[in-house]
Write a structure and sequence with these properties.
By secondary structure, this protein is mainly alpha-helical. The chain has helices at residues 4-25, 30-51.
């Protein structure tokens, strides 16, 4: 299982990438929505680990 710190770093990378894509294409672009879903999954993974 990945460590909390590793997952938090992944979350920050995904957040930064989503922000960059949003600035480039606008908030409603499919690429931004895809990045948002990836970020949501990673945040859910982090929450699940923290609850154990």
């Amino acid at each position: 299982m990945k460590s909390k710190e590793f997952i938090r770093a992944e979350i920050e990378k995904l957040r930064s990438k989503m922000h960059s894509v949003a600035l480039l294409y606008g908030l409603s672009h499919p690429n931004v929505l895809k990045a948002s879903r990836r970020l949501d999954k990673k945040i859910n993974q982090y929450i699940k680990i923290c609850q154990n």
